[in-house]
TrEMBL record, chain B:
This is ABC transporter permease. Keywords: Cell membrane, Membrane, Transmembrane, Transmembrane helix. It comes from the Bacteria. The keyword Endoplasmic reticulum does not apply. GO terms for cellular component: plasma membrane. InterPro entries: ABC_transp_permease (IPR001851). It is found in: Cell membrane. It is a multi-pass membrane protein. It comes from Martelella endophytica. GO terms for molecular function: transmembrane transporter activity.
Amino acid sequence: MTMQDDIKSVSAEKKTEAASTARSVNERSAFQRILTLTVGPIIAAFLLSAIILMLVGVNPLTYYGYILERSLFSGLGLEQTATRMAPLLFLAAGLIVAFRAGIWNLGTDGQFLLGAVAAAATAPLLIGILPGWAVLLVGFLLAALVGALWSVIPALLKAYQGVNEIITTLMMSFLGVLLASTLVKLLFRDPATTVPQTRTLPVDDRLPRLFDTSISSGLIWGLIAVLAVHLMMTRTSFGLRLRMVGANPAAATHAGLSVPLLTMATFGLSAGLAGLAGASEILGVAGNVPANWNPAYGLMVIPLVFLARFNGFGAIVLVFFYSALMIGSESAARRLGVPQNFTLVLVASLLICLGLGEYIDQHKRKKER
Amino acid sequence: MSGLLTEAFLSSLLTGAIVAAIPMLLAGLGEQMSEKAGVLNIGIEGMMLMGAYMGFLVAFKTESLWLGFLGGILGGVLVAIVMAVLCVRLGLNQIVIGIGLTLGVEGLTALLHHFQFSRTYPRLPAPERLNIPGLTDLPVIGPSLFGRHLIVYLALVAVVVLAFLYRRTNLGMTLRAAGERPAALDVAGGNVLGVRVFAVMFTGAMAGLGGAYLANIGAGLFLPFMTGGAGFIGIVLAMLARGRPLWVLTGSLIFGAALSLATALQVAGSTIPTDVIQMLPFAAVMLVLVLFGRRAKLPAALGAAYERGAR
């Protein structure tokens, strides 16, 4: 309850803030801005995707209705949606840190998978040696460490050589995905199974479930991670420093900040959180890592974080929305014969429509000035 | 492992390297022009995939490989138009729109393929080859270097043409100005947005052609998600090449060789997991970046939208 109240009060603050600036700059109401910035684009994206669905001969109403029913209006579906949110939230937290600090960490998929492998390789071996909570803790810490380590080279290159991190993180991501697969096949393979995968963490030893549902408590940790990161970036001096580096590195240097060190810290935090995302998926839900496994959550969360304008609360809403879409379209795909990949079309049209909404908003404000 | 150094093995390795390198070469050359003009084109993966899909579809329906290539170019350009309108004209964030377009095309092509062919993956007939008399008969390098489809040679010609264009023509200068000092170009009477739109269109055409090559010649069929990061490698090649088309060629050949080595070793029954070998090209790029990273210079205005009069 208290957390919800916090969210409400903070978002109310934001709204009044936005409204007052809008009023001082021009006469347009906050309502109109929300319409052009969020509601309008979302409706437009759904309409656009509906046209594509109709073109391939699927009734969009049936499809959207089925997604809603399966992901939100059925108990099991809602639980699956909430469970799916956990790793996505950790990834969103990692990306918020990086993007706000002006670092384009596009390598979260590699960091995520190596974190997952680290957790999957150690946790099953520690059962019986350590108490249950300690097994999970070690798994999470190790995953964060491995994820962060995987970003050291891009971090050093960016901080001290000025090498563009878009290439280096992408390359390290490809490398990390392949390395994770190799590790599963060669080093951490479960000798008891024929398909190459790591040892499986028994269901009883995974993250506890919430209340009487099948929702993994990873959800709570994910929410905490996003909120902590959001508050850190907006309310602490450390966050302010990171944002200064992001906004203008030259000015930050001039202000006496150690830009290289802050860059290293950003990479470590961002990649560490991506590693935690991997651990939360393994220790909370999957239990093991199969060879060649790559859900590519990282690349998918990047646009969500952009859409949320690097805001933690916005990211939570969008991650919930996206998880519901994923879960719903997984069942719709089986039932209505629409490939699951249609979700990608929907997300892409959302991105484009939201971008256009922002453009229209800026344009209008400029005109009114 | 003793059978590795046979003529057949080396020949197939070389063939594989070239087949794998051409799509990346075309994509890299396209991306290079975008980057020169100041547009970081992350949507290139989507342009390639659309090119692969349209290229295959046209070639399959018309039974003409050349029309297929045209279809591929058209597919790439269609995606590039969206990119040009949103990122160049309206100045939206290039990374967001780029990733968005890539994801959207991945979903769209998979969807369309599903509704056209259901779960079947029809194949195209093997392409005819351009056989140069005499050269094609050489051992090892003959069939792999001189028995390729004409499009391979056209790609090589493109390297030379682009190198000339960048160094010796006004257009080359204008492109560079649009990427380094758009405001200066504007003052001098150049059309920054026009140049950038042109560059993005060219990128779309090249990436689409690369995708069509991948589908029609490399694989002979279309598979959803078949580009598998080739576009992203194109971005890396363009960044590493520092504006020189010849370096894009060198890089794509190294990548192609590493990818082909992975397949060849697998065929030869090696016990090294293919994942390890597939890591080679990416590891090579990282090594180059660690050694020469400081020198990888990008255009000053790369990634920033330009608006007339706003300086």
